[in-house]
Amino acid sequence: MGYLEPTSTQGSRTVPIFQKVLEMARGGFTLDATGLTVGETIPAGTPMVFDEETRKAKKATLTGTAPNETSDAKGLLYTDVKIEANAPVDVVLRGTVYARRVTPEIEDAHKKALPLIIFSESR
After folding, report:
1. CA triplet 90, 122, 74: central angle to 5 degrees?
2. Does residue 16 sit in helix, strand or coil?
């Protein structure tokens, strides 16, 4: 029997991007939609940062210039999330992701910030 992705009311992805999820941030978070367009979708696998106290999560950012860019990423978004008020967000902290299925492509600085996530080149 194969591994099945959980059903999500948020996501519409039919091809899983995670090969294996070993650890997720506990308790889930609410999307901080500041600066985002309501109605658009953030794809699964997007680098995310979260605050344990406020229980808010947002897209990770890059600082600096290549090749010295750094990222504040703490994990990857588990499922596609439609941007709306109080959208639920789950973040993967440790596991394996199919790097070729993540869109848009993750920057090297994000990968460096996520040492517990394996970016597999298999299909």
Report:
1. 30
2. coil
Q: Are 42 and 29 spatial neighbours (Cβ–Cβ below 8 Å)?
A: no
- Characterise 113 by phi-psi region: left (phi > 0), alpha (psi -120 to 50), beta (else): alpha
Tokens representing residue 103 in the block: 């869109």
- What CA–CA distance (Å, rounded) separates 93 from 120? 15
Q: With b meaning 16 or more CB within 10 Å and e meaning fewer, what string describes 32-71?
A: bbeeeeeeeebbbbbbbbbeeeeebbbbbebeeeeeeeeb
Domain boundaries, given as residue ranges, for the chain: 18-120
In terms of CATH architecture, what is 18-120? Answer: Beta Barrel (2.40)
Query: Which token pair is 12?
Result: 């519409």
Which DSSP category does 70 fall into? E
Q: Is the peptide bond before 16 cis (omega within 30 degrees of 0)?
A: no
**Residue 104: its pLDDT value, please?**
76
Whether the per-residue pLDDT at 4 is higher than 50: the answer is: no
pLDDT given at position 2:
45
